[in-house]
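User: Batch of two.

Assistant: Item 1 of 2:
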Amino acid sequence: MIAARHIKQIVWNGQVMTAGGKGDLSKLKTVLEQISETGNASNLLFKAAIDDLYETVLASNLLDAGFTAKLLVDLLDRNLYERANDCRWWALTAELRNGLADPADQSVRTIGRVLEHINGLYTVYTRIFVYDRQGNIIASTGEALGDHAAVSPTTLAKVAALRTTQSYYVTPFEGSPFYGGDSTYEYHAAITHPKDPGQILGGIGVVFDSRPEFDAMLRAGINGRSNMYALFMSPNGTVLSSTHPAHPVGSRFSMPASMSLPEAGEHISDVGIHDGQYAVFAASATAGYREFKTTDGYREDVIAVLIRHFGPVLKDSHAQIIAPLRVESTVNTQSGAEYATFVCNQQLMALPALAVLEAVSVQAMRPASVGQSVWRRGIVRREHDGQDTYAWVFDLAGLLGGQPDQPRHDSQILIMQHGLACIGLIVDELHSVAQFAHGNVTPNPLSAAQAGLFVSSIIRANDGELAIQLLDPQRLCSAFGING
């Protein structure tokens, strides 16, 4: 496609240079028109092929993103299922039950040693602790608890209400004093009397190390794929973990407006815009694992979101729609002129072909700080009669739209000559060079108003079905502060 644009530029320049020419130049003009028509047909074929390829790639990535999001929530559910199992299993440990039944110093030390041993084997927890019926923590792994040597009244009440060894309680994902104030899950199970299982003596709490564990799950899911990000969030959009620096834990994330949140066990995918990039989105909600979150009475919905970027959002994509449009010259006319057409601000515009010297890529422009104005973007070098000359380059789209604009990487610079003045105009895309009878060019009825200040006339092309705005070189030079 880059090669096609380059060929189009060469043909367009050739048509401009032969404008008004007779004899051999007229023959060359005919050849250039044939090349242009062949190029347009080839572009349409390439566009159709690329569109098909995009659809295939997009469909594949939507499936891949949906599968990955589903995999992430499955990893989450299976991992947290084990956390619920751990606290319940360890609550049955004889040393813990006997120690709480007879909380002598020796018993407390025994509980501490058991907890240290367990935590040494299970590094997914930052802390494991045991507390009595009043909620006072009597033994704990990790650093000293200081002022946080008791569980919250809410947690204590929930644990006291547990009736079987299959029951457990999980705190909401929020700031925990046992996790440095950061958000995580605490899993709790009741510890009962060794001789009376109906008598609750206290409980055991395990503090899940959510930061590295969630991050490891997300990164395992995306598996190093480029431009791909993943996060866990709650249904209200609170981020639990993220691989994207703009969405840290505790921030809010919003799905594209076109996507609704999935229900439990569902996953959806769509295309949208994220961080100035075209992106594929996929979201999957937890479905639970075995009895966990399904029949055990615990419900904490988490949604895995997968984002994959595919490149920056393009400006003025409408220019790509205008470009294949064919402009038909007026045939069999002896009283007419040729006009160079181009796309700017998503509109088809023209200048008299005799006022245009050539077009060059915007990549040829160099910044220049001397005499800067709001519309001036730089300077471009061109060769004339064997000597180097320079032309100021101006932001035509910004002038016509009233707001300064930045050119795209594939924009063109149209070199215009008016009297002694030679300036460059940044346009979105070159179009064609066509001849029209004088009767097809009518004065712009709005030329006296601000909206039509730079449009002197309207060209009625294609039997009046297409209107092309003809810009006035004199007015453009005056607007840019250039004397012609």
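Item 2 of 2:
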Amino acid sequence: MRRAFLLWLSALVPTLLWAHPEWKEASCIGVIDEKDTFALTVKFDVPSFLLGQLPKDAPIKELDALMFTPGRLAGSVEPGRQQFLAGLRLEADGKPVAWTIVSFPSAEQILAQSARQGEADRYPVMMNAKLTATIPAGTQKLVLRFPDALGTVFTNLRKGMDFQTVMAVSKNEPGEFQIGDGPAPADPQTLFTLLADGFGHVLPDGWDHCLFMLAMFLGAASLRQALGRSLVFTLGHSLTLSAVALGWVGNPGPWIEPFIALTIGLGGLMAFRGTATNRQMLIVPAVFGLVHGLGFAAAVSDRLKEWDNGSIVRILVGFNVGVELAQMAVIFTSAALLWAILRTGLAETKVRRSLCLAVALIGFAVMAWRVAGLAGLV
């Protein structure tokens, strides 16, 4: 593994050194008309985006391969278009709003623009993507997120003659644009929507919850014991989420993500070894739940600051009940799948240990990947 990593690194370093020095930040102009139609024009370096890299990081060798390998550019445009649409997020007073792409650069247009710039200046190829959305009438605040591969986007947003904001929107700090004078309308969250949010945090979004619940189930002596561990995990999860929401604990930031993956690896390893007592296996999900709660708080930090103290308790209770219901569904589903597998005649101990080992390896691998990401190695 070490030898393979060194070979990969030795191949990567020269490529990075060949990255072209001429690059430009993406820019954007947004206009909201009297009919609440939001027209957005984003100007960005298209080839580097299609490679999934920032213009300053895209090596010329890779750009040339994209542009001049027959068929490769044409085959990259549609996936890039879909990636652009998926990464461009808009919220109006906290509610998501869908975008429609009006135009996106074609392969022929990209090649023609690069050719017009000449051989010495063929990169970057700055071109426009145009989109439109309809925002609800009376919207007071917009939150705009751009695809990560664009990096920082200099944005000029205007509504009529009354509101205009210019700011640099980075991938880590979404842009917030005030387009109205009044307060944002209250979020009409019902018990059902809160339960649905909590359930969706696990299924389908929370693969980390699912893997950890699988480890807790596989290491339990009974279904009842597994459900007890799930409940303890949720209590720990709710404690740290509540602490961050109430301002008692600061936002943990991205460093918490490797620790979440570590808890999955350790949970799978402990279940694989099978040496922990039931009391210890109640303490473990409680402690690991505290870590997962911090991770979720970091992921929704932009929403936490909008929760007023009067609604925090209602939101957290409803949300965490939804989380627990989803975790119970994961445990019951795991039990049903295990029963089906054992019907084939395989030994239960062997199946449980194999699955535990798989969970542990996934957890530790994801932890290593996230650490490398924070260190800027990937």
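Confidence is low (pLDDT under 50) at residues 1-21.
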